[in-house]
Amino acid sequence: MEVPILKQGPYLIASIQSALSDEDLVHLRDALVAQVGKLRSRGVIVDVTVLDVMDSFATRTLRDIAHMIRLRGAEMVIVGIQPEVAFALVRLGLKLEGVATALDLEEGILYLNRKMLESGKEMKNRGR
Amino acid sequence: MRKVTHKTTTAPMDSVELLRELVAHLQQSRTLLREEWARRITEAKLLTAMSKDEIFAEATAIYDNYIEALESGTFEALQAYARNLSERIIPRGVETHEVIGIVLLLRDVLARSLFAKYQSDFALYNRILDAYEPAANRIANTVAVGFVQERERVIREQQEAIRVLSTPVLQVRERLLILPIIGVIDPQRARQLTEQLLRGIRTNRAKVVVIDITGVPVMDANVANHLVQTVEATRLLGATVIITGLSPEIAQTLVTIGVDLGKMNTVGDLQGGIEEAERLLGYKVVPLGEASHSV
After folding, report:
1. SS3 B253
2. Given B163, B188, B223, which residue is the final one in a domain?
3. Residues B143 and B7 in one domain
């Protein structure tokens, strides 16, 4: 099942609706990385609230997406990881290093807003 | 009784009669043997938690139950008594070896008295022992098992009580939880702690969690690892963990297992931890006087 990608102001929201196959994940990756450039988005939120299992491929792909998004000049945050999933991931040593995470969609948006603000300040400082 | 005699083929009446004779003898010398037994219990320094009178009273009761079990060949009454006895004496700190010790002493006392009575007729003595030993061993077994089972039941109950009491996840401020941990953390408790914490973060929408381990004396490498994993899992939920009150021993353990200190946010004590958390959340606590000045 394909993941809908919604545009919300300067951000893209990929809201996962059901368990994903490896193929779906690859699709999601390609679509997000393409869209982020096309729509000139500043941030991406991937909502994984409905996932009650995340395997190593999913985790690795999400991490790759985050890194690719950063190279494309935006920020990505994963939101809604379930407590059980979180602990299972850590146990398996899948720690999503270098990837921002937040509790839910609202927190994710707040996180991105803060990031925007910070980078805005930096720009200003550099401008002076 | 009759059924039993039909089933056994060799000298059936004999063994039943022997047992009956034996019981009669033990009943006759009840006062003497009971005293002898109580004396040997004191001598062997068993049941030190109980007074002499108590020992004597229990000895009488056990003795009578013992003979009844020998006589009837059924152990239900004895079992019930053993359970009841265990219930009474376990809270007073009576140990397993003491209970087994006194039952074995009674067996010895009775065997001696049988020897004294039948030593002139060795063949008869042998047959008496044949009747006595299996029953006596089964009695010792029943009492010991009853005691151990009761003890295990008590331990299970206590563990359950500790589990229920052990780990509150408390909200001190909007989006700030504290988790004070007291006592030794075993792997099961560690798992439960993690579960409660992660759930608590979700339901309270917490942003910062202060885990205070001042009350944890030691931690083995396994549990320390688990703690580190909990910290990482918390990050995946978008929250930050601050650990406070790390003892020197635990610090040593963490260094030994090679924790990545960059991921661990530690502050000396709970107060410092809460202050740090408030800073992260953007709170500032100001005394009332100053606040009105600045406004």
Report:
1. helix
2. B163
3. yes
Q: What tens digit of pLDDT does each residue of B54-95 get?
A: 888 888 888 888 888 888 878 888 888 888 888 888 888 888
The pLDDT value given to residue B6: 43
B290 within domain boundaries: no
Would the ipTM clear 0.90, i.e. be above it? no
pTM (predicted TM-score): 0.61
In whole angstroms, what is the distance from residue B278 CA to residue B295 CA?
21
The CATH number linked to B227 is 3.30.750.24
- For B115-173, what is each residue's pLDDT tens digit? 888 888 888 888 888 888 888 888 888 888 888 888 898 888 888 777 766 678 899 99
Residues of A whose CB is below 8 A from B230? 87, 90
What is the extent of the structural domain holding B271?
170-285
Q: pLDDT tens, B230-285?
A: 999 999 999 999 999 988 888 888 888 887 767 788 898 999 999 999 999 998 88
Structural domain including A45 reads 5-127
Element (H, E) at A79: strand A75-79
CB-CB neighbors (< 8 A) of A91 in chain B: 229
Nearest to A83 among B205, B207, B237 (CB): B237
User: For A104-128, what is each residue's pLDDT tens digit?
Assistant: 999 999 999 999 888 877 777 765 5
Q: Which of A81, A104, A107 sits opposite B236 (nearest CB)?
A: A81
Please state, in angstroms and rounded to a whole number, the distance separating the CA atoms of residues A39 and A32.
10
In this prediction, residue B243 carries a pLDDT of 93
For residue A6, how many other CB atoms are within 10 A of its CB? 11
Interface of A with B (CB under 8 A): 78-79, 81-87, 89-91, 95-96, 101-104, 107-108, 111
Number of domains in chain B: 2
Do B133 and B189 sit in the same domain of this protein?
no
